[in-house]
Amino acid sequence: MDKNVRQKEMLDYVIRHQEVTIQSLSQMFNVHEMTIRRDLEELEKKYPIKRTHGGVISKIYRNIESLYNYRSTLNTLQKEEIASKAANLIDDGDFIFLDSGTTTLELAKLIINKNITVVINDFHIYDILKYSETLNILFASGKITKEYRYMTGGSLNESFYNNLYANKAFLGVMAVDFLQGVYQSDLKVALSKRGMVRNAEQVYVMADTSKFDKKTSYKVCDIKDVNYLITDSSFDSTLYSIPSQLNII
């Protein structure tokens, strides 16, 4: 696993669980305890955690909603830029899948007055869209993931999408590998996204450049299954091997 991806997942885990031992993190990420100590030393300089004897604790966040709010503050300008690009690709009459996440949340704010059908699986997004007088909103079935207030449920949620067909799907992901595909760190979430990919005419992945050339635990789909990658203006195509069929926006 890429170091930056490991540290991001480690930070999320520490904030969510409040107090974690170095031994458990070592087992979770399958790296030596010394590597975990170095990771925590770097993270402590930038984020609200504190190393302790044999472990680490979260200093600020005391509930899941605070964790979500914290993640929504990361790369805010990039998320807004990506969402603006995505909104311009949505036309009245579209039937779209809108994935969960803090980047797609920004997109939700921009489509509230559009005349479209939107299938969602995120309660944060529903809280924004529920006041719209023009949207036709469908909520995916499955099991509620309480940590982030969205619907997954693994194969149950994946099969929900098999009964629908969208002309556009807008996905948020944890990592993008231009040779292999796009990835997510949670299997149930990955299965939900797979359902969207399989049942959409065009797949749009929304990701800032910090997620490029990385992998996490579970593949959502091959890179050939992605029609468009919507990213931020810092993207430099000379730094990556971009497949010819992938359109960058």
- DSSP strand (E) fraction? 15-25%
What about the largest sheet? Answer: 7 strands, parallel
Structural class: alpha/beta
The second-level CATH architecture of the largest domain is: 3-Layer(aba) Sandwich
- CATH class assignment of the largest domain: Alpha Beta
- Domain count, please report it: 2
List unreliable stretches of 5+ residues. 61-66
Radius of gyration: 18 Å
Give the distance, in angstroms, between the N- and C-terminal Cα atoms. Answer: 27 Å
Shape: globular
Order of helical and strand elements: HEHHEEHHEHEHEEEHEEEHEEEE
Average pLDDT metric: 85
The count of DSSP E runs of length 2 or more, i.e. the number of strands, is 15
Major sheet strand order: 6-5-4-9-12-14-15
As an assembly, this protein is: single chain
How helix-rich are the residues, as a percent range?
Answer: 25-40%
How many individual helices?
9
CATH topology of the largest domain: Rossmann fold
Please describe the topology of this protein:
Elements (H helix, E strand, L loop, with lengths): L2 H15 L1 E3 H8 L3 H14 L2 E4 L2 E4 L5 H9 L3 H12 L7 E4 L3 H9 L6 E4 L2 H7 L6 E4 L4 E2 L4 E2 L3 H7 L4 E7 L2 E3 L3 E4 L2 H12 L1 E7 L11 E5 L5 E3 L16 E2 L1
Parallel strand pairs: 4-5, 4-9, 5-6, 9-12, 12-14, 14-15
Antiparallel strand pairs: 1-3, 2-3, 7-8, 10-11, 11-13
In short:
With 249 residues, this protein is α/β, with parallel strands linked by helices. It contains nine helices and 15 strands. This is HTH deoR-type domain-containing protein.
What this model shows, in words?
With 249 residues, this protein is α/β, with parallel strands linked by helices. The chain has 2 domains: 3-62, Winged helix-like DNA-binding domain superfamily/Winged helix DNA-binding domain (Arc Repressor Mutant, subunit A, Orthogonal Bundle); 75-248, Rossmann fold. 37% of the residues lie in helices and 23% in strands. It has 9 helices and 15 strands. It has helices at residues 3-17, 22-29, 33-46, 64-72, 76-87, 102-110, 123-129, 155-161, 187-198; strands spanning 19-21, 49-52, 55-58, 95-98, 117-120, 136-139, 144-145, 150-151, 166-172, 175-177, 181-184, 200-206, 218-222, 228-230, 247-248. A 7-stranded parallel beta sheet has the order 6-5-4-9-12-14-15, sandwiched between helices. A hairpin with a 3-residue loop joins strand 10 and strand 11. It is globular and about 60 Å long. It starts with a helix and ends with a strand. Residues 61-66 have low confidence and may be disordered.
